[in-house]
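User: Design a sequence. Structure:
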């Protein structure tokens, strides 16, 4: 069994930022119709905003990689119904923003 390295400090930051009264969460690149890849993927797996918040407020970060000049973090956890969800996020320190790059439900 392969053990994934956890990035506890990054997970703590995500959990803290999402517990704010008005968390600064964005959904990445917008297509011409206003939707984004992350919003489409969330919709495909029936992940709503509350599911996302619940998951990120209790997440663990199991991967960190540099992609397209950004540090992307794999935040994993469970929604309020116990479904396992994964979010790839970019953190923007200057305004405590969590940018959702993509998301999916583990099947």
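Assistant: Done.
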């Amino acid at each position: 069994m392969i053990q994934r390295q956890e990035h506890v400090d990054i997970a703590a930051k995500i959990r803290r930022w999402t517990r704010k009264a008005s968390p600064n969460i964005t959904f990445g690149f917008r297509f011409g119709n206003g939707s984004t890849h992350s919003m489409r993927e969330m919709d495909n797996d029936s992940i709503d905003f509350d599911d996302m918040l619940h998951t990120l407020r209790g997440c663990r970060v199991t991967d960190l990689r540099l992609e397209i000049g950004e540090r992307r973090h794999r935040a994993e956890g469970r929604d309020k119904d116990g479904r396992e969800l994964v979010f790839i996020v970019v953190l923007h320190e200057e305004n405590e923003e969590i940018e959702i790059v993509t998301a999916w439900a583990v099947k």
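The chain has a mean pLDDT of 90. The longest helix spans residues 8-18.
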